[in-house]
């Protein structure tokens, strides 16, 4: 005999739920095995145990000090902007539950859970002012020549005897006897008139290892510096585009003129209105020049992170940087360009390990509170719904398993860390999930009171309950999204767990709770309304309707039978009028009033 449609739907739903759980388990398990084997890949850091946040585990605290020159001062607005940008850069690295705060009038304290990797530390320590400068001259760090005309005079430099990168020689002091002012006023940022004899001398003797961290120059003057890896030296013209003019920067695969992928990673830039105009002017000039003057250097803290050549004038404010990029290096550069435009330059004042601000005791207390809440929900369900409570318990177990798997995967894949606020979100989720079950169960009981058999009551009650559950969960989810977008720090953790558990609640109710009710409705224990099932129509005070006839609770010795009071309360107005008419003196059994003879 073929199964009925509700049973087929129930088995299909339970199968999909099993597939989801098996898929998440297999993903996390496979990644954990690969990570434990020491192989490099997307599974790095995978584990069955979620990482803990700063308040529960401790971590690393980095103090950044603003670099000030010539009597500069730091405004509160500049520090606030720097805090925001540094937070964005850390979040883009996949590190969550970090704390970035101001300290005093010119310091920023960055606290990160656990021990961050080198790439994350470099993102933080490289949080400096971003700018674009035209390249006047470049060469290898160990050997270079500079040549340029300045009003008929030439300045040249032969291979220098400066120390190789890594030496500990003192920073070079320029020769004060050499001319430091251009003899002819430069006409633009690429004019070689910027290269004075003193600047050429600095370049010749510049040591990337000793000098590069001290590279400084006003925005309107040329700069001698090196690449961030110390392999190339540059003479750069004045700043022509500020990093703050970048509106967006992303990484992706470059495409050719026909729109086909070249399998080469690139960094895509978008400038705002002012930046678009300035970038158009500069690229229109650079494209007409010979190498290396056709290059445009991107500097971070006055160090060159990339110096691409201008292949065409870019007038739409959209530029693409290509080179020997990998996916990771292109993303790192995109993050630097997007979030690196700090209003100030910072240096690392201290880097130290800190202990947990709350610790394991508070975590255990939070878990105990959650366990107590879970036990109370189970006790309430047993009292209110009797044997039906086992569906509630199983649903909560399924929801807990899904939540744990999702958080474990997010922990190693997206850098999520579980804080005490996140644990609070999980505890609140117990009430949200239990509320969905209660709504559904009460809808079924309402249908039973209306006289339907259990199988029909389950289907009718589901159609009414799911709308309420979706409306409730939608409100919770919107609240979680709002908190996640607007809040910072630990509140984001609470919002994330709240949003995850809200989605999981819908999955469990749809793919487990409802299918289970569809199946148990066909069993004798529940279908016949056993008094311990929690779905006994008599105990619920069912009232059966049919052809304008109503069944009143039977009165015994002046008192209604069990369930009678609830049946009277739930009568409609029509039922009550009919009941009054039937009980009026002189009314016959059919409800019509008798006449006096």
Label this structure with key terms.
single chain, 597 residues, alpha+beta, six-stranded antiparallel β-sheet, four-stranded antiparallel β-sheet, 17 helices
Give the oligomeric state.
Answer: single chain
Helix content: 40-55%
Structural class based on helices, strands and sheet pairing: alpha+beta
Whole-Å distance between the termini? Answer: 63 Å
Query: What's the total number of strands?
Result: 19
Give an account of the 3D structure.
There is one protein chain. This protein has 597 residues and is an alpha+beta fold. Helices cover 45% and strands 17% of the residues. Residues 143-169, 545-564 and 589-597 have low confidence and may be disordered. A hairpin with a 3-residue loop joins β2 and β3 (107-113). Strands 4, 7, 8, 9, 12 and 13 form a six-stranded antiparallel beta sheet that branches. It has a four-stranded antiparallel beta sheet with strand order 2-3-1-15. It has a three-stranded antiparallel beta sheet with strand order 10-11-14. It contains 17 helices and 19 strands.
